[in-house]
What we know:
Number of helices: 7
Number of strands: 10
GO molecular function: protein serine/threonine kinase activity
Keywords: Kinase, Serine/threonine-protein kinase, Transferase
Helix content: 25-40%
Protein name: Histidine kinase/HSP90-like ATPase domain-containing protein
Order of helices and strands: EEHEHEHEHEHHEEHEE
CATH class of the largest domain: Alpha Beta
Shape: globular
Strand content: 25-35%
Radius of gyration: 20 Å
InterPro entries: Anti-sigma-factor_SerPK, HATPase_C_sf, HATPase_dom
CATH superfamily of the largest domain: Histidine kinase-like ATPase, C-terminal domain
CATH topology of the largest domain: Heat Shock Protein 90
Amino acid sequence: MHNGAIMPIEVRHLVDRGRAHPLVRLTGVLGDESAASARSALLDVLADQPEALVVDVGGLVDPHGLAVTVLRDVFEATRYWPGSRLALCGTTDTATWLPAGWPAWPDQAGAFAALGEPDPDRRISIDLEPDVGAARVAREVITEACHRWERTDLTGNACIVTTELVNNVVAHARTPMRVLLALDDETMSVAVRDSSPVLPRFTGPVAPTSFGGRGLLLINAMTSRWGNLELAGGKVVWARLVPDRTVMPV
């Protein structure tokens, strides 16, 4: 009940990408179905690996206390990739949101000021079709980025891992893809987003006589961490690389 009338259980999400960081305004009443929709919308924005994300909850009505659970789930799902800094605004009740893992500010200005300006040069994305030349194009972009970032120590592993991820889309998902590359301190991440809901499965070592099946084993050996992010319209498979990670026998 709100202002004497029954409000529909519906949440609208308006995404503003024209700010320093993406801003998502959540408005309406949060119920079970709309909570799932809100979660999906936030993950979709984060799948483009923004440096940070601001969510305005000033227009959100949460009669069942679902918002903290939704935001905590988003926080956990994206903690290792893309690892974006997350901020809430539109609330003065900061204690309520602490379990979600999102710091909160009363207004948008405070949230954006706390996050500061992004460094767009540290995040790169390219869209590719699922053809045999896709991996080569991705390697060229990665090689140039590593040179510009003065991180040529990561070039080889980043190219090998990305080749495996891209070729997996070409061979199995067969959908257009987006290759994402980011540098955060000493760690580089590579990721590939496609429109297939089928997730890669890592089953451990394969027999020496087996044909194929070594792609994920290679990724597991060459990265400090890898995983996938399930989306309403597909998935992202990502990996994080550090300088001292070397190739192990597969």
